[in-house]
């Protein structure tokens, strides 16, 4: 089917801007050109930042009720155009149409949550009289917006992860400049359209499209940007941290998430949850299941069920209503995953399913007995590959889970409450899902990791807290002269 190529405009401080220089966006399924998008320059980004700073400074106080109205109207616009958003996500990215619809639903909830949390940006009274000599002092602290937020977003959730930057920033009263992934900028521009129609004040939102090297670096280093919020890879995150200077930095940098399956687990439930966790969004998911450690007593049974369910997955046209797994974001990424699997097999690993590439498609793959020194056991594969290994006991499973330099989320399947709490205490991660895979999240919960998995926490309320500062107010009460 021939698709009409769209000529897009980027959104800068309330204006839709067209550029002579453009870059191309392709459908990864067939490499078909679907859009031409403005290639912003350093000057474009500087303009967006300066207009954001000007807008923020010009509104002495943006009332909470007005922020809430903008957010609600944006959510309503998304609701009214759900299928348009879903088709955009599926067309420019890797998700099947059903996965894209789920992302739209979550993104709407993220914006709605942001509107709700805007009314709950509260402070606290402070008991100054806890300090001797301060009996005549009384006060409190309150939170205030920090200014211009710079956001850099990835390709794998091209709508909801942008919503997780914009929603809290607006709820907190900040201006925000977004640099979306160059391979999937259309969803971010569509979200800008929702906020434009919602009546966001000019300057409080810009979506600047272009090269990370050209405009991303400008966003990170500009002195007017008071916070950088980044979701992406560890190497890029490290560079950003070095270049940002003295400003707030929040980063979600991925993982290679472990799941532990104990002998007393409900195996069919564990298998189904781990299949979904490993292969949804074709494995391009920061909390996707990558390593599964199964107690020896049930290892063979779990593996057999898992392999059978894996081979039943339907790989194909991502627009098909019955498709389970679509392509990776491009053929280059599929080739990378293919090379990692080949390396694991050369190191002595065993292949039980998949291991096949067709263009940008890589079939759901199950490996066992992959040595710890193999790259796929150490790093985030960001593809549809899962490693399943037997363990003697929970202690071994936890030790192997903690071995890597990641710690975003993990899961454990068990019917023993003591196993659950022991794991909660010992696993070095930001979130533990009990009787669920690592791939579970709601948009209201704190979300983030330890070690190489990032800095700070996202989730609407947590993001609002990081996007505001506390100001302490203290009154010293003086006795009136009679």
What characteristics describe this protein?
alpha/beta; Aldehyde Dehydrogenase, Chain A, domain 1; Aldehyde Dehydrogenase, Chain A, domain 2; 2 domains; seven-stranded mixed β-sheet; six-stranded mixed β-sheet; 23% strand; Aldehyde dehydrogenase family protein; Aldehyde_DH_dom; ALDH-related_metabolic_enz; oxidoreductase
SSE arrangement:
Blueprint: E1 6-7, E2 10-12, E3 15-17, E4 22-27, E5 32-38, H1 42-58, H2 64-80, H3 82-92, H4 97-118, E6 124-126, E7 137-145, E8 148-152, H5 160-172, E9 175-179, H6 186-197, E10 205-207, H7 212-221, E11 225-231, H8 234-243, E12 248-252, E13 257-261, H9 267-279, E14 289-295, H10 296-312, H11 331-346, E15 350-353, E16 357-358, E17 361-362, E18 365-368, H12 375-378, E19 385-391, H13 394-401, E20 409-413, H14 417-426, E21 431-434, E22 454-455, H15 460-466, E23 468-476
Parallel strand pairs: 1-5, 8-9, 8-11, 9-10, 11-12, 13-14, 13-20, 14-19, 18-19, 20-21
Antiparallel strand pairs: 2-3, 4-5, 6-7, 7-23, 12-22, 15-18, 16-17
Describe the protein in words.
- It is a single chain.
- With 482 residues, the chain is of the alpha/beta class.
- The chain folds into two domains: 6-254 and 449-470, 3-Layer(aba) Sandwich (Aldehyde Dehydrogenase, Chain A, domain 1); 257-434, Aldehyde Dehydrogenase, Chain A, domain 2 (3-Layer(aba) Sandwich), CATH 3.40.309.
- The protein has 15 helices and 23 strands.
- The chain has helices at 42-58, 64-80, 82-92, 97-118, 160-172, 186-197, 212-221, 234-243, 267-279, 296-312, 331-346, 375-378, 394-401, 417-426, 460-466, and strands at residues 6-7, 10-12, 15-17, 22-27, 32-38, 124-126, 137-145, 148-152, 175-179, 205-207, 225-231, 248-252, 257-261, 289-295, 350-353, 357-358, 361-362, 365-368, 385-391, 409-413, 431-434, 454-455, 468-476.
- It has a seven-stranded mixed β-sheet with strand order 15-18-19-14-13-20-21, sandwiched between helices. The protein has a six-stranded mixed β-sheet with strand order 10-9-8-11-12-22, with helices on both faces.
- Helix 6 links the parallel strand 9 (175-179) and strand 10.
- Helix 2 (64-80) crosses helix 6.
- The chain is globular, with a radius of gyration of 24 Å.
């Amino acid at each position: 089917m021939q698709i009409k190529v769209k000529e897009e405009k980027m959104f800068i401080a309330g204006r839709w801007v067209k550029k002579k220089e453009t870059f191309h966006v392709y459908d990864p399924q067939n490499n078909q050109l679907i859009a031409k998008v403005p290639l912003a320059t350093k000057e474009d980004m500087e303009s967006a930042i300066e207009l954001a700073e000007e807008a923020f400074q010009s509104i002495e106080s943006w009332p909470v009720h007005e922020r809430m109205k903008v957010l609600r109207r944006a959510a309503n616009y998304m609701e009214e155009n759900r299928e348009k958003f879903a088709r955009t996500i599926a067309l420019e990215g890797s998700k099947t149409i059903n996965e894209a619809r789920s992302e739209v639903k979550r993104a709407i909830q993220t914006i709605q949550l942001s509107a709700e949390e805007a009314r709950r940006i509260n402070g606290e009274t402070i008991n100054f009289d806890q300090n001797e000599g301060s009996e005549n002092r009384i006060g409190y602290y309150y939170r205030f917006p920090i200014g211009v937020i710079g956001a850099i977003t990835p390709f794998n959730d091209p709508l909801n992860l942008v919503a997780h930057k914009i929603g809290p920033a607006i709820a907190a009263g900040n201006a925000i400049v977004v640099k979306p992934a160059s391979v999937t900028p259309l969803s971010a521009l569509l979200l800008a359209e929702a906020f434009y129609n919602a009546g966001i004040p000019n300057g409080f939102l810009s979506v600047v499209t272009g090269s990370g090297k050209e405009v991303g670096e400008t966003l990170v280093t500009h002195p007017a940007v008071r916070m950088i919020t980044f979701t992406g890879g560890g190497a890029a995150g490290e560079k950003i941290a070095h270049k940002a200077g003295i400003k707030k930095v929040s980063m979600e940098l991925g993982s290679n998430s472990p799941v532990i399956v104990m002998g007393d687990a409900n195996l069919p439930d564990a298998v189904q949850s781990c299949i979904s966790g490993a292969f949804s969004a074709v494995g391009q998911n920061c909390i996707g299941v990558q390593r599964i450690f199964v107690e020896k007593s049930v290892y063979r049974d779990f593996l057999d069920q898992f392999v059978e369910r894996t081979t039943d997955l339907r790989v194909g046209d991502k627009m098909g209503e019955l498709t389970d797994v679509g392509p990776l974001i491009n053929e280059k990424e599929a080739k990378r995953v293919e090379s990692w699997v080949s390396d694991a097999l050369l190191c002595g690993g065993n292949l039980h399913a998949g291991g096949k590439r067709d263009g940008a498609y890589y079939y759901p793959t199950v490996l066992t007995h992959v040595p710890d020194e193999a790259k796929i056991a150490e790093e985030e594969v960001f593809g549809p590959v899962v490693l399943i290994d037997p363990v003697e006991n929970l202690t071994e499973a936890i030790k192997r889970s903690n071995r890597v330099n990641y710690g975003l989320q993990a899961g454990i399947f068990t019917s023993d409450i003591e196993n659950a709490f022991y794991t909660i205490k010992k696993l070095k991660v930001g979130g533990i899902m009990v009787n669920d895979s690592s791939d579970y999240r709601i948009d209201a919960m704190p979300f983030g990791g330890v070690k190489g998995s990032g800095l700070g926490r996202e989730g609407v309320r947590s993001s609002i807290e990081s996007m505001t500062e506390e100001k302490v107010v203290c009154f010293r009460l003086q006795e009136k002269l009679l």
